Every structure is written in C-alpha cells, then in structure tokens.
Amino acid sequence: MKPLQIALLGAGTVASGVVKVLARNQEELQRRAGRGIALAAIAARNPDKARAALGDALPITTDFMALATRPDIDIVVELMGGISPARELVLAAIAAGKHVVTANKALLAIHGNEIFAAAQAKGVIVAFEAAVAGGIPIIKAVREGLAGNRIEWIAGIINGTTNFILSEMRDKGLDFATVLKQAQALGYAEADPTFDIEGVDAAHKATILCAIAFGVPVQFDKAYVEGITALQAADIRYAEQLGYRIKLLGITKNTGEGIELRVHPTLIPATRLIANVEGAMNAVVVQGDAVGPTLYYGKGAGSEPTASAVIADLVDVTRLHTADPEHRVPHLAFQPDAMSDLPILPMDQVVTAYYLRLRVADQTGVLADLTRILADEGISIDGLIQREAGEGEHQTDLIILTHDTVEAHMNAAIGRMQTLPSVHAPIVRIRKEELR
Ligand SMILES: NC(=O)C1=CN([C@@H]2O[C@H](COP(=O)(O)OP(=O)(O)OC[C@H]3O[C@@H](n4cnc5c(N)ncnc54)[C@H](O)[C@@H]3O)[C@@H](O)[C@H]2O)C=CC1
Ligand SMILES: N[C@@H](CC=O)C(=O)O
Ligand code: NA
User: Fold this and answer.
1) How many CB atoms lie within 10 A of CB 275?
2) Which atom of ligand 1 is nearest to the CA of 11?
3) What are the chain's domains?
4) 20 to 30 Å CA-CA from 424: which of 57, 68, 268, 392?
C-alpha cells in the first residue's frame, strides 16, 4: 500500500522533532500503522532557516495554502501555532478532505467547536494529542482509557515553562527573568512567553481537557486565568513552612451545578506526588468515579517529547484512515449530538480553600478584627501563623489558611480586611487544594 502523504506546516521546534523521529522510527511506525507514513513536503516561512534546521532531503515551500490543499496530501500537520493563518489553513485542509494533526492548543481552545464541526461534516479526523501536556498521552487516556467513568475533576501541571520557572526559583534561588530566558532557549516557551507566565497556555489546555472530560463545547472565554507573575518568593517560603508547594494548576471540576474551569497558582500538600513534579515536567491527576484518582506524568514540552504525541496521532489517523467516520472516537470524547449544556461557573461561585498573607501592624486587637470579618462572611480558619516581628519592626506577616469557602465570600472578606488601618499592604490570596 502506498504510504500516506504528510504535509508539515511550520518548521520550528516541534516540526524538527517530528522530522527526526519519523526518520529514526520509520520501520517501527510502519509495523504499527500497517502502512508507511511519508513526509511529502514542508511549508516554512524562511526556507533557508528550515533547510538549516531540517536538512534538504524534503521539498520546502513558502506557499502554505497550496501545500495544505494539495491533492496528493492525506494528512496536514499544523505546527505553526497562533490563530491566523493556522485557522484558515486547517479549515481549508479539512474542506479539501485532509485529516489534520495539530499541536495548537490556542487554536483548538478558541476555535475548536468550528473546526471539529467542519471535520465531522467532512468525515475527517482532527487529532490533537500534542496540544495538551505534550508527550503525555492524556487526550487518549481521558477520551478512551477512562471512558467507563464519570469524570469528577482534573487538575494538572500543564505548562512546562512555568513549572520550570517555579522549580528553578525555589531550588536555585534564580530570578524570574533569568529562568524564563533558559526556558525559551530550551524550546519550552510559547512564541509569546506571556502566554506561559500569565497562565493563558495552561488555560487553553484546561479548556480542551474540560471539553473531553465533561462533553461540553470548548469555552476558553469562560476560563478563569491567573499566572505566576504576581507570585512572591515569600509566599513560596511560607507555603513550604506550612507543608505545601505552590504550583500553577489547571483545574476543571464537575460540581453538578456547573463546571469549574480555572488556572491559578495553587497550594498543594507537599506529600502529594504532583507536588513533587519539577522542571518542565507535566503531571495530570484525573479523578473518575469508578477508577478513583489516576496520575499521568511526563514531558509536557520540548521538541521530541511533543513530536512523540504528533506521531502517535499520525499512527492513529493512518490506522483509522479508511474506517467509517461513525466508528471513530468522537473529537470531544462524546457524540456530537450528545454534548452537555452544563454551564461553566463564574469564578465567584467556585468553592476552594485559601492561603492569605497579610502585612499587619504588630499590635493587639488586629487578629480579633480579622477573625471577626472572616466569621461574618462564614469563612472558617484552618490554621494561622504569625511571623515574630523583628527588633524595631512594627509590622509582621500573618498567614491564614481557611477551609473551603465560596470565592464571592472570600472577595467580600478581603475587601473588608483591606480597609482596616492595621492592614498595611495588599492582601495576598492564593487558592489551596487538597486534591483528594
Ligand atoms: N514547543 C513545545 O514544547 C510545544 C509546542 N506546542 C505547540 O506546537 C506548535 C508549534 O510550536 P513550536 O514548534 O514550539 O513553535 P516554533 O515557533 O518553534 O515554530 C513555529 C513554526 O511555524 C512558523 N510560523 C509561525 N507563524 C507563522 C505564520 N504566520 N506564517 C508562516 N509560518 C509561521 C515559524 O516560522 C516556525 O517555523 C504551537 O502551536 C505550540 O503551541 C505544543 C506542545 C509543546
Ligand atoms: N509553552 C508550553 C509548551 C507546551 O505546550 C509549555 O511550556 O508547556
Ligand atoms: Na499529550
């Protein structure tokens, strides 16, 4: 049988991994897929740069649209990133009857509904294992391996760049900017690294996980997104003293009333496996009603780890190429006519526990004022530490851990506490999850 013909759009970090691994594992892949997978051509903005990175064995074109719709191409692999022209190219490839493999979580989190509907109508596959947690087969696990479960929640370290930054800052005492530059040099960061550090990339991935876990459309616009740029070294230290680690988590949870979809720095008990995931590694915990918690760990970024997921999709598509579209795994795990309309909950309805740090006057009565406000708002305290004021210091740090409460109540309490004359700086609030 003639090998399936692949067109690669983009010639950057992930594309170069795909070219290398496809060449290296060619024979093994043919044995797995039942037929050959052949790279036909690459579209690159800068052919000289592409040739320098990928060699000159393959034809390179600058006409992305012509390649994406070329009659002899069976599968288009989109590894450019960004929304436009990636969206137009993917839709054109689908309209031309091509299967698509993409690592582009931004595109799918924002335009996934349109893209999956177009693919469904045309009877082609859009495969996206590389879009979430890079090389970890989490899409496969949630959509297929856990299909017997009602998924209750998913929480994951799904951005390698920020986990690398937090780990290096904590372990080596390096500053934020230095570590971010290292992450960029290692090929972990997005083309625009603010997507990583502001939590947007993790929110794109959480949006996709949310859709395949609960059978709802992708709704990135409803995600709560908070990154790590405001995180202070003092809070990482206090968290350690209290037996917690701070990680940027993507969380999605079915509460029955609606679905939580949020990304923010989170205190998690240091004894949890996921709290000990360091560097650019990713880890995702999925809680199913039947199986309980399962944990998936591995490289979430980088050239060959991400290529591993892209190529797994190529093998899948090659195997399913001739299958009746009705017998394929649905793009969002649930049949398109059986999607749920459960709403994504606004952040002020989310229930979680909190770590609060207050810079307060070192005088009597302060604690009583603060605990009264928390009690008024129905918030109960789980623990409290007060750093001894140094000699000559008139202020001190007060750390309060709370039990679960509704975010709206916490907003009200923080608003009131902030107006007290004895509270001297903006109150730091970090959400806390036990993950059990
Ligand atoms: N680098 C990583 O570790 C991972 C990346 N991804 C995703 O994979 C995709 C590719 O990422 P990388 O390879 O890291 O990016 P990259 O920046 O290294 O490569 C992107 C390639 O696409 C080309 N390109 C970008 N915009 C273009 C445009 N408007 N017109 C023509 N060519 C354009 C660039 O010239 C470059 O050749 C992105 O969607 C990214 O989010 C997903 C998982 C991990
Ligand atoms: N920039 C992303 C790359 C993979 O998705 C990350 O750091 O995780
Ligand atoms: Na993956």
Assistant:
1) 20
2) 37
3) 4-135+303-338 (3.40.50.720), 138-299 (3.30.360.10), 348-432 (3.30.70.260)
4) 268
